[in-house]
Amino acid sequence: MAAPAPDRRGERLRAGIRIGGEVLITLGLVLLLFVFYAVHVTDWFSAHRQSEAGDRLRAQWQQRAPEAPPAPTAAGEGFAQLYIPAFGPDYRYTVLEGTDAKTLAAGPGHYAGTALPGEQGNLAIAGHRIGKGAPFGDLDRLAACDALVVETAADWYVYRVLPMSRQVAGWDPAADPRCTGVAPIDGPYRGVAGQEIVRPEQGEVIYPVPGRPHDALPREQQTRLITLTTCHPRFSAAQRLIVHGVLVKQYPKDPVHRDLRPPELEES
Fold it and tell me: What is the DSSP letter of 119?
């Protein structure tokens, strides 16, 4: 009588576990490589493109006559520089025209059709939060009255973050000298706060009066705002993090002493 076949179920189980473990390790390595590429490799490419855009913009400014009117900006080209002193003295990004994927891979992008720096209406700018330079990676850290400084060929514009929703009821601008000119805005702007989180399809946050129809106010009655947008939460595009600010100061550039900078850049 032949001996019974050995029971190899244990061996098959161990082999299955070993193979499954190897697959999981491989998938983990692939995921780590993807994250490394998304966060670091794209940062290197974006930094190079951002540097080139900044060099071109500064060269244009140096060649521009002081009295020359601003020329229309081509898609993907820089037209202003954004400083956020709360993020450190080295925070400076060239703002490019447009918000397509190629443009945003090189830096913050201006939503076409929204206000230009200093204009009445809403200067709206988008930026990545993770990878591709992540210019708006720390946007959630901004507090009421933090400065958002925009430099153009002829002027410096100082915007400041509006009060947060929880601060509106007891708002006291005298409590912080930086808050001069910053207050909850009434009328059609009621409810526009320094920060909000919205769904991706809520594009009305970049309208001249955020959250209201385009024709909510005649242009000559519109407040001069800035709106920064980015994805939320980190590593997700499920929502959008929005920051709103209001223009409080304008410094025309001195055509002789072009290296003069507004004192707001020294804030931290």
Answer: S
The residues, any chain, with a CB within 8 Å of residue 7's CB and separated by 6 or more, are none
The structure tokens listed for 10 are 């244990």
Tokens, residue 216: 């909510």
CATH of the domain at 219: 2.40.260.10
Range of the domain at 242: 38-65+75-266
Distance between CA atoms of 122 and 210, rounded to whole angstroms? Answer: 8
Average pLDDT across each block of 10 residues of the chain; the chain has 268 residues. List them in order: 60 62 52 50 85 96 78 92 97 98 97 97 97 94 98 96 97 95 96 98 98 94 98 94 98 83 94
- Count of domains forming the chain: 1
CA distance 225 to 239: 22
Angstrom CA distances, 190 to 75, 118, 183, stand at: 33, 21, 11
Is the Cβ–Cβ distance between 103 and 77 less than 8 Å? no
Q: How far apart are CA 179 and CA 177, in angstroms?
A: 5
CA distance 219 to 209: 10
Report strand pairing: 121-126 vs 224-232: parallel
Q: Whose CA is closest to 255, among 60, 58, 65?
A: 65
